[in-house]
Design goal:
401 residues; alpha/beta; Alkaline Phosphatase, subunit A; 32% helix; globular
Length: 401
């Protein structure tokens, strides 16, 4: 029996409320040996107060030493083993903008980037352009035609866009063209099998045409593609846990993740304040609430230690408004670590706090990596967080006689 079947067998409905607040890329590193991380540096009086009544630990998103993407990071939090459920980022981005992905489609996430006169990447995110710029550049690329294949180019946000290749005999076993490094050229797409080679051929043609169209549009003068994917079959959270689930996220990709696992996607506005107002409005309508906060990740990727500290403090200021709703279980964690020192996702376990009336408080008094290491949850695999939440919400029956 696997974990999902166990949840189906034991689940009970009692009207309790569970809130998952996911601060993307929450975990960090000190800039100097012996120093403090971004979370430990931030003034987090409200989270610290919550921690004193809760149980803490460090979540391992995939396995020790494995740095996850946002997809596996979130799927683990929702109770899906990220080694079993490998979902390409392209599908998540497409679902996030509510693009209807069909059986002949291969979706891929695109980034605008900046290249110099030698074709080498100088900025992987093109300076994070305004979304209006993204829309303008996508309109240019919508003119690209490839015989026998339909191409859909849709803006997402800032430097992000989606490309969907629609046709017969297309596969998704294609490498990313983003080298995830500077001062190198974008990679050539290569397919692992015959159908994926068809996709790769179309991809290389698309990128070559995009390069011509965008050559005079620096900093958005080139594109990279990553996360080629077809639509997967996956059980919903309502099927597994019996929960009515709501997603309150601003960024499209995280809406895509939530839509993939069957959550209702709500209008979250544009700010954390808007998200909490939405939470309040729909409080009686759902059992499980996924709230996503992006800016702890983007500041980490930009190497902005002080900026990440500031975003953590802004998040902390809103904690009382969520607690005022009196959830039965309130969890604050991240999908992975994004240390500003590394400018990227990392393998470091993620600080996690679980508040409920049924916890055994563990004596931790501050929310930070070194404190959570001594918490009652220890270091645990993220895929077990949902079963812990269900148990503390009184939604799991006894196992066995």
């Amino acid at each position: 029996m696997n974990l999902h079947q166990l949840m189906r067998d034991l689940r009970e409905n009692n009207g309790s409320k569970i809130v998952f607040l996911v601060a993307d890329g929450l975990g960090g590193l000190p800039l100097e040996v012996g120093g403090k991380t971004e979370l430990e540096t931030a003034r987090t009086a409200n989270l610290d107060g919550m921690v004193r009544e809760a149980v803490c630990g460090l979540s391992i998103p995939v396995l020790p030493g494995i740095a996850p993407g946002s997809g596996p990071g979130h799927l683990g939090l929702f109770g899906y083993d990220p080694l079993e459920y490998q979902i390409g980022r392209g599908i998540l981005e497409a679902l996030g903008i509510n693009f209807q992905v069909g059986p002949r489609d291969v979706a891929v996430r695109g980034n605008f980037c900046t290249v110099n006169d030698k074709g080498l990447i100088t900025d992987r995110r093109a300076g994070r352009p305004a979304t209006e710029r993204c829309i303008e550049m996508c309109k240019k690329m919508q003119a690209i035609k490839i015989p026998g294949i339909e191409i859909f180019v849709e803006p997402v946000r800032e430097h992000r866009f989606v490309v969907v290749f629609r046709g017969d005999n297309l596969g998704d076993a294609v490498n990313d063209t983003d080298p995830q490094a500077l001062n190198v050229a974008p990679l050539h797409a290569v397919g692992e099998d015959a159908n994926s080679q068809n996709t790769a051929k179309a991809v290389n043609t698309f990128i070559a045409e995009a390069s011509k169209l965008l050559k005079n549009d620096a900093p958005t003068n080139m594109v990279t593609l990553r996360g080629f994917a077809r639509y997967p079959k996956i059980a919903t959270m309502q099927d597994i846990y019996g929960l009515r689930c709501a997603c309150i996220a601003v960024y499209p990709m995280y809406k895509g993740l939530a839509r993939l696992v069957g959550m209702d996607i709500l209008d979250a506005g544009a700010t954390l304040n808007d998200q909490i107002e939405t939470l309040k409005k729909v409080w009686k309508d759902y059992d499980f609430f996924f709230m996503h906060y992006k800016y702890t990740d983007s500041t980490g990727e930009d190497g902005n230690f002080a900026g990440k500290v500031e975003k953590i403090e802004q998040l902390d200021a809103e904690i009382p408004r969520i607690r005022a709703l009196n959830p039965d279980v309130f969890i604050v964690t991240g999908d992975h670590s994004t240390p500003s020192k590394m400018l990227s996702h990392s393998w470091h376990p993620v600080p996690t706090v679980l508040w409920a009336k049924t916890v055994r408080p563990d004596g931790v008094v501050e929310f930070g990596e070194s404190f959570c290491l001594r918490g009652g949850l220890g270091q645990f695999e993220a895929k077990y967080l949902m079963s812990l939440a269900m148990a503390h919400a009184g939604r799991l029956a006894k196992y066995g006689a």
